[in-house]
From TrEMBL:
In the C-terminal section; belongs to the DHPS family. This is Pterin-binding domain-containing protein. It comes from Oryza nivara (Indian wild rice). InterPro entries: DHP_synth-like, DHP_synth_dom, Dihydropteroate_synth-like_sf, Hppk, Hppk_sf, Pterin-binding_dom. It comes from the Eukaryota. Keywords: ATP-binding, Folate biosynthesis, Kinase, Magnesium, Metal-binding, Multifunctional enzyme, Nucleotide-binding, Transferase. Pathway: Cofactor biosynthesis; tetrahydrofolate biosynthesis; 7,8-dihydrofolate from 2-amino-4-hydroxy-6-hydroxymethyl-7,8-dihydropteridine diphosphate and 4-aminobenzoate: step 1/2; Cofactor biosynthesis; tetrahydrofolate biosynthesis; 2-amino-4-hydroxy-6-hydroxymethyl-7,8-dihydropteridine diphosphate from 7,8-dihydroneopterin triphosphate: step 4/4. The lineage of its organism: Eukaryota, Viridiplantae, Streptophyta, Embryophyta, Tracheophyta.
Length: 442
């Protein structure tokens, strides 16, 4: 609605669930912020925002009380505005964690951006909005009852910082490197889904297209032909109650059909590079989007050129952030984006190990460009990958589960929030112990 009113949104903050302020006897609130450009003058913009509030159903009520939406102008370029209807910068920015947290998300930690410099100069602290945020507690208060980052998925708000989530793999392909051909039939797929759920999977990731190196690419129609019968059967089983479904696809058409049939998350190994239409489709679908780092496509990703890195973590961070920017500009808000550094995609064994051990540095590098993007969930998918076989001399992928759990542990301790595994039973135990270790370390 803002876009239709003449606001071009260029950046999003994370989404925060917060305790009510001032009037405390009411439900919790959701807060975020967006950054954009507009030709509307400040008072024209305010008028448009009030019209949007009204269209969404806001009426006059208790001040600070429950309402469907409240839109405020926090900053407008370098402007100082003080009129009867509008004060910019917003006068209560500095006392409200639920405003400062998303506002800081819209900034980068580097000081190259002149617009951001001018914003910091409008803050009441010499250290800009970073100092204001630190005075309220900063990152240390995130995850408390007062304020939590959340991912809207299905009919819930997911706080991914509470514990590591386990994504179980269900391949409907005849040619996947680990378990190709095992679960193509509906009955076998249902049995495997029930097993993954019984072992504790939080998410079932269904893929009908192999993305192993040099795999033959299916058309969207071929992929749907494999996917739809299994998907329809799985969504009907009682065991799926409370669980999340993800579709592993890079096609817009497949993503749309899968979500229509009950899928909650779109997991795109290409980050929108193979079928760019998927970004706008996912934006319209309003579901979380996993964007992964990969150079080229599965047929070219392991080429000599695509394996050239100077600093692999810096380059993965930079290239992954480009995918985030493209997703945001296509209408997918940051609060629905999950990052995947792409273990085994356009990387050799050394690169994979450096990425797993360097997840924190990847976050830091992304944070230089967007603090919000550095806070989103990270999904790690090392399960049974070839590099583990090379290290352990295990030719058979199914014999790589122990090695998988070692790198999953390292990944979780370095900041991964979701691990994608074939062996969910081991994955759940690994996540629990890694989370305990992580809390003990803090």
């Amino acid at each position: 609605m803002m876009k239709n009113s003449g606001v071009n949104i260029t950046r999003h903050a994370c989404l925060y669930e917060t305790s009510p302020a001032y009037v405390t006897d009411q439900p919790r609130f959701l807060n975020s912020a967006v950054r954009g450009t507009t030709k509307l003058e400040p008072h024209e913009l305010l008028k448009k925002l009030k019209e949007i509030e009204k269209d969404i159903g806001r009426t006059d009520g208790i001040r600070y009380g429950p309402r469907p939406i409240d839109l405020d102008i926090l900053l407008y370029g370098k402007s100082h505005i003080s009129t009867e209807n509008l004060t910019v910068p917003h006068e209560r920015i500095h006392e409200r964690p639920f405003v400062l947290a998303p506002l800081v998300d819209l900034l980068g930690s580097s000081t190259d951006d002149n617009v951001e410099k001018s914003w910091h100069s409008l803050a009441k602290c010499t250290g800009g909005f970073f100092e204001s945020w630190d005075k309220l507690g900063g990152e240390s208060i995130i995850g408390t009852e007062g304020i939590k980052r959340v991912l809207p998925v299905g009919n819930r708000l997911l706080d991914w910082s509470e514990r590591t989530l386990v994504m179980g793999v269900l391949n409907l392909t005849p040619d996947s490197f680990s378990d190709g051909g095992k679960f193509q039939e509906v009955e076998a797929a249902i049995a495997q889904t029930k097993l993954l759920i019984s072992e504790g999977a939080d998410i079932i990731d269904i893929g009908a297209q192999s993305t192993r190196p040099l795999a033959r690419r299916l058309s969207a129609d071929e992929e749907l032909e494999r996917l739809v019968p299994v998907l329809d059967a799985i969504t009907g089983i009682p065991e799926m109650e409370g669980k999340l479904l993800s579709v592993d696809t890079f096609y817009a058409e497949v993503a749309a059909e899968a979500v229509k049939r009950g899928v909650h998350i779109v997991n795109d190994v290409s980050g929108g590079q193979i079928d760019p239409r998927i970004l706008e489709v996912v934006a319209e679908l309003g579901v979380p989007y996993v964007t992964m780092h990969m150079r080229g496509d599965p047929s070219t990703m392991q080429s000599e050129q695509n394996l050239l890195y100077g600093d692999v973590c810096k380059e993965v961070a930079s290239e992954l952030y480009k995918r985030v920017r493209q997703a945001e500009l296509s209408g997918i808000p940051l609060w629905r984006i999950v990052l995947d550094p792409g273990i085994g995609f356009s990387k050799n064994s050394k690169h994979n190990l450096e990425v797993i051990m360097g997840l924190e540095s990847i976050r830091t590098e992304i944070g230089k460009m967007s603090l919000g993007a550095s806070h989103v969930p990270i999904l790690l998918g090392p399960s049974r990958k070839r590099f583990l076989g090379e290290i352990c001399n295990r030719v058979n992928p199914t014999e790589r589960d122990a090695a998988t759990m070692v790198v999953a542990t390292a990944g979780i301790l370095n900041g991964a929030n979701i691990v994608r595994v074939h062996n969910v039973k081991y994955g759940v135990d690994t996540a629990k112990v890694s989370d305990a270790l992580s809390k003990g370390r803090r």
